[in-house]
Amino acid sequence: MICGSEKNSYFKSQNLKILGQGKLNGIVEISGAKNSALVLMAASLLTNERITLENVPRLTDIEKMGHILKYLGVNLVDKNNKLEIDSKNVSITEELPYELVNGLRASFFCIGALLSKFGKAKVPLPGGCNIGSRPIDEHINGLKALGAEIIIKKGIVVAKIKEKKNKLHGTHIKLKCPSVGATETLIMAASLAEGRTTIENAAREPEIQDLCQMLNKMGARIYDSGKEKIIIDGVNKLVGCAHKVIPDRIEAGTFLIAAAATGSSITISPVIPNHLEAVTNKLQESGSKITIKGNSITIKGKEIRGVNIDTAPFPGFPTDLQAPFTALMTIANGESKITETIFENRMNHIHLLNKMGASIKLNKNVAHIKGVKTIKGMDLVGSDLRSSAALIIAGIIAKGNSKIYGLEHLDRGYENFESKLKMLGIKITREFNKRSFTEKEYKITSDPEDIPKRRAA
Ligand code: EPZ
């Protein structure tokens, strides 16, 4: 449990030490999807009955969402990878405290459920983060269209249902961009509204389909999830259910990329292969051999050819795998171009990879990569979840040892990452340094020079 003052030193006093030029071999078990489990936890607020979630990954983001639900009065029993959630005593007298929701964007997705169930909601603005400004205008505009009155004061979003009968009303919503979070917020809000809601230009991510599957088990009437136009016929009440979280396609893709980058052969399972089609297609184009059998994928890394990637909403290439794939392309034969189209600031790993000897020219959100023979191990600081995963892949590829700091990002989204890599044959250990860096010694920059040369633990 990270709490209180330790939290501040948590990420400064831990690093992953990686011996480079590793090989992976064997079978790795994929955990439940972080971005599904988080929204399913928010959706549990829509019923007074018990929701049992299985295959929930043990991550700091999940822990944070658990604290938020408990703050609202939810009774949450954490049975390792299973959560029992009981929202019958939820009260929303005061707003969620900023320190609870800060840094967990998914906490904002509670607003749709709280508003629809209780007629009002007060949730702090989620704020930006390392990868971009993360606006919420699509959430707000959609909730207003459903009949909510919304004011934002002193960073708190205060929403209430205008109509006396305290119910949102169905309507037609056209999103300006297929926002995952906004689609989820509006599906949850519309599920208890009066009448039909259609959401056009809806996001189609598997995590949204997982949410709709659970809501329909709870008695919601949602059609065509996973398509661009979703239909929700509001109902009066939603009941409890048990639901198993889908496998994490981003974790799965990260392991596939690590295998491709090291010329390794591994099997990942359980997965839902069509959740990874854009990724497996690009890995095959780049030279890996992919075999799909039921709910497992086997990859045999061979040569690595440079390929071009444009990130896109599902079913396109996922933005969450852009950084790990960039690490792979640093040692490809030939050139590649990686374009990040979703977030405005998701290239933080580029200059770190260049410090390791990669040859990448960055022009705004476009990385032009010339493959090099090898990169060298270094001490590096990850600055967001997925760029930290990219640095670990780079550390595995590199010649020599690396130390990756900034594990508070990594632990948000990858369950037991280093133990899974260790089981696959990678020499990787988590070091708990005897003392944490004092603030002046350790700036959260990506410049390894900032890491004081210190004795390892
Ligand atoms: C979800 O974030 C995921 N997080 C992200 O995963 C993922 O990268 C992202 O979807 C895209 O797939 C969770 O599910 C908890 P968006 P979300 O709203 O919902 C713009 C990870 O690494 N936009 O689809 O915040 C926005 O600026 C995380 O696991 C608006 O303009 O993403 C961005 O450019 C990172 N107005 C684009 O849409 C809005 O109201 C996509 O954002 C909302 C979004």
Question: Got a strand count?
Answer: 23
Across the major sheet, the strand order is: 21-22-1-23
Number of domains: 2
What's the name of the CATH homologous superfamily of the largest domain?
A: Enolpyruvate transferase domain
Which structural class is indicated by helix and strand composition? Answer: alpha+beta
In CATH, the topology of the largest domain is named UDP-n-acetylglucosamine1-carboxyvinyl-transferase, Chain
CATH class of the largest domain: Alpha Beta
Tell me what the CATH architecture of the largest domain is: Alpha-beta prism
Ligand names: ligand EPZ
Please give the radius of gyration in angstroms. 22 Å
Percent of residues in beta strands: 15-25%
Low-confidence stretches: 1-11, 441-457
Give the proportion of residues in helices.
25-40%
Main β-sheet: number of strands, strand sense, barrel status? 4 strands, mixed
Could you report the average pLDDT, rounded to the nearest whole number?
Answer: 91
| Total of helices | 15
Q: Could you tell me how far the N terminus lies from the C terminus, measured between alpha carbons in angstroms?
A: 21 Å
This entry's quaternary arrangement is single chain
List the SSEs and their pairings.
Blueprint: H1 4-10, E1 14-19, E2 25-29, H2 34-43, E3 50-54, H3 60-71, E4 75-79, E5 82-86, H4 98-101, H5 110-118, E6 120-124, H6 137-145, E7 148-153, E8 156-161, E9 172-174, H7 180-190, E10 196-200, H8 206-217, E11 221-223, E12 229-233, E13 241-244, H9 249-261, E14 265-269, H10 277-285, E15 289-293, E16 296-300, E17 309-310, H11 322-329, E18 335-339, H12 350-355, E19 359-363, E20 366-370, E21 379-381, H13 385-397, E22 401-405, H14 407-413, H15 417-423, E23 428-432
Parallel strand pairs: 2-14, 3-13, 9-10, 17-18, 21-22
Antiparallel strand pairs: 1-22, 1-23, 3-5, 4-5, 6-8, 7-8, 10-12, 11-12, 14-16, 15-16, 18-20, 19-20
Helix pairs in contact: 2-3, 2-8, 5-7, 6-7, 7-8, 9-11, 9-13, 11-13, 13-14
The protein binds ligand EPZ.
Ligand EPZ binds at residues 35, 38, 105-106, 132, 134-139, 177, 179-182, 203, 319-320, 342-343, 385-386, 413.
